[in-house]
From TrEMBL:
Pfam families: PP2C_2. CDD domains: PP2Cc. This is Serine/threonine-protein phosphatase. PANTHER family: PROTEIN PHOSPHATASE (PTHR47992). Residues 1-228 form the PPM-type phosphatase domain. InterPro entries: PP2C (IPR015655), PPM-type-like_dom_sf (IPR036457), PPM-type_phosphatase-like_dom (IPR001932).
Amino acid sequence: MSDVGGREQNEDAWVAGRTGGYDIFAVADGVGGHARGEVASEMAVRILEETADECLPGLKPAVVLEHAFLRANAAIYAYNRENGLNAATTLSAAIVDQSGKCWIGTVGDSRTQIITPASVWQTRDQSYVQSLVDAGILSPAEAMRHPGRNIVTQALGLESRVRAEIDEQEIAGAVLVISSDGLHDYVPATVIRVIALESDPATACRRLIEAAKDAASTDNITVIVARG
């Protein structure tokens, strides 16, 4: 589910589908302050889908993700050079097999979480405030209130090269949540966890977006919820 939230235009894009025996989920968020963020985010998810369709099940999912991120970055970078723009987007994408094994690729601060009653695992945001958290300067709670929380340290389309963080996890029996920062920059992780665990996916999506609005989110809000 995606909502314009506190913006005039929705520059988020998402995909939830299936190809080659794998489930594919992703959220992309056009970088604020850069022209045509909505174009960059749509390009990212489209190229991810195309790459998955072409390469699965022939290649390993981690390799497919690496190819997809490189292709998306190259395409958006070329678009910028051709048009004199600086369009950019985040992308967090997951490929899941039938056993519940999950491969996750991330550039920027869109986030994937794997939630169980006992634990929460999440991708590491490529952002300014995350670097402050890593250095012990800010707590996660302080990072949510920091005025620079929307500054990403890497995005697709701004440089000729990009390095996606690739993770491998298990989601059997867990809840997979992928979101743009319009959700997780405003709704505490503890609240996201409770909603994800106690609601069916469709209800969880609605409740999470409502929670972001109640928290006065000023950004677009996109969230995918899937049960393993």
